[in-house]
Amino acid sequence: MDRNRVIIFDTTLRDGEQSPGASMNQDEKLRIALALEDMGVDVIEAGFPIASNGDFVAVEAIARVVKNSVVCGLARATRGDIERCAEAIRPAARGRIHTFISTSPLHMKYKLQMEPETVLARVSDSVALARTLTDDVEWSAEDGSRTEPDFLCRCVEAAIKAGAKTINIPDTVGYSVPDEYAGLIALLINRVPNIDQAILSVHCHNDLGLAVANSLAAVAAGARQIECTINGLGERAGNAAMEEVVMALRTRADRLPYQTGIRTEAITRISRLVSTITGFSVQPNKAIVGKNAFAHESGIHQDGVLKNAQTYEIMTPDSVGLVRSSLVMGKHSGRAAFRAKLRDLGYDLPDGAVEDAFVRFKDLADRKKDVFDEDIVALVDDAVVRGNDTIKFVSLEVLCGTRHRPPSAELELTVDGELRHVRATGDGPVDATFNAIKALVPHDARLQLYQVSAVTQGTDAQAEVTVRLEEDGKTVNGQGAETDTLVASARAYVNALNKLVVKRQKTAPDTLLA
Ligand SMILES: CC(=O)SCCNC(=O)CCNC(=O)[C@H](O)C(C)(C)COP(=O)(O)OP(=O)(O)OC[C@H]1O[C@@H](n2cnc3c(N)ncnc32)[C@H](O)[C@@H]1OP(=O)(O)O
Ligand SMILES: CC(C)C(=O)C(=O)O
Ligand SMILES: [Mg+2]
């Protein structure tokens, strides 16, 4: 491999899923994994197989279908974790076991309650065991950036000797600053005798907002794998954002002459997919994928951009897949234009899904003056998440305002094909709507998040709603998009309930809907 090629290791499905509330079901993980493969990610960390049966099954399913990326699973330094991980990645064309153990004094003493020499022995044993199960083994020194350098060098040397091909030095708690972290990478390159037999990797957390800066500094010092996530999702403040790392390398190739295999035009689409699935919206001013990242509001900037976009744009919107296609969609558009538009927007849907989306598009075009690309993306994503729902939204009428006390909602749903109807009241229109759903489908799940955002501008914009429900420690996210905010809210709640039903049936197959 070219010595300046940087391997992109995506951990959205593992570390990203560790963001509280960001749990994803198997179908959702599969969709993200395929999108990651399609954009050219080298390694997909698909999950932590020992963590739960659901995680195991998801990693195995991803290993079965992904062909062009390495599929990796995480494992602690224990036989049970490593063997379970090997089983999950077995169907992969190229599978990797990623095993880790903490090496910092704090973690060894208080968390693992192990002596350093015991940890060192575990490094060798765990990597050696993993190597009997696959050729591709990565070893991580958890809390590596707070580890004593001498001890870290000994651990890294032992891991390579035992057969690790990738050595990852995480900044687990996001404590490092760039020159210090780069210094640590340089130290390992200079001091570990067998370091040339492995690729050095970095995994940075964003507790001080330095995850991307630290990752880039480490690459300049000799690291050749970056672990990152879409939208910077991840434990606590998140991981290094893949879109930022990749676009920094592409845009500043003059200072950072390193290449990745990422097709950057896929960035906007996958950012949106991950945000829709997890319910974690992207802040408007977020680098690369925020709504405002390529928007120009002030007159002097607009004037400059009109004269030459480079005055205020260091990358083109097209380079991250923010494409405004020339097809203007409206109520007179037909299926051919709609299909072409979907292709422009990066969708490759089966005919049935295209037809469903087309019907909803026509309905939207009847109600909304301008149908923007964002509207179509929201509508298609909304249709896709509904998949094989058992509970289906049918209709909603809400009475609210100063004269109607209390606000009331009249709702129709089908449950397993049977039409159910109810009228309920609440403290407000949303509360009344959700109470109506609870009356039709009784459940004890708690509402953890209710979030509304407008897809585009204007009072006729579609509302995109996320609802997060929690039941017995399990969380699910539901999404809904409609021009009517209350209908979008009902759709989002129903979508979350459907996911909960699936989860329940997996853990207690006899549980039926009330
Ligand atoms: C930095 C990171 O992101 S690491 C990945 C973090 N991700 C997760 O933890 C998500 C998935 N985790 C889980 O589902 C659970 O924690 C499990 C299934 C892995 C373990 O569950 P439990 O057996 O109930 O253990 P619990 O979570 O309470 O504690 C972790 C145990 O693993 C030990 N441990 C932690 N890391 C390692 C390691 N790398 N190697 C060996 N043992 C480890 C801890 O010392 C502790 O052991 P103890 O129970 O003897 O004190
Ligand atoms: C498991 C390791 C790689 C990790 O996520 C961390 O240290 O942050
Ligand atoms: Mg991490």
TrEMBL record:
GO terms for biological process: L-leucine biosynthetic process. It is an enzyme of class 2 (transferase). It catalyses: 3-methyl-2-oxobutanoate + acetyl-CoA + H2O = (2S)-2-isopropylmalate + CoA + H(+). SUPFAM superfamilies: 2-isopropylmalate synthase LeuA, allosteric (dimerisation) domain, Aldolase. Pathway: Amino-acid biosynthesis; L-leucine biosynthesis; L-leucine from 3-methyl-2-oxobutanoate: step 1/4. Gene3D superfamilies: 1.10.238.260, 3.30.160.270, Aldolase class I (3.20.20.70). Mn(2+) binds at residues 15, 203, 205, 239. It holds the Pfam family HMGL-like. InterPro entries: 2-IPM_HCS-like, 2-isopropylmalate_synth_dimer, AIPM/Hcit_synth_CS, Aldolase_TIM, LeuA/HCS_post-cat, LeuA_allosteric_dom_sf, LeuA_bact_synth, PYR_CT. Coiled coil: none annotated. One of its GO terms (molecular function) is 2-isopropylmalate synthase activity. Keywords: Acyltransferase, Amino-acid biosynthesis, Branched-chain amino acid biosynthesis, Cytoplasm, Leucine biosynthesis, Manganese, Metal-binding, Transferase. Belongs to the alpha-IPM synthase/homocitrate synthase family. LeuA type 1 subfamily. HAMAP family: LeuA_type1. Homodimer. This is 2-isopropylmalate synthase. It comes from Magnetospirillum molischianum DSM 120. The lineage of its organism: Bacteria, Pseudomonadati, Pseudomonadota, Alphaproteobacteria, Rhodospirillales. The gene is leuA.
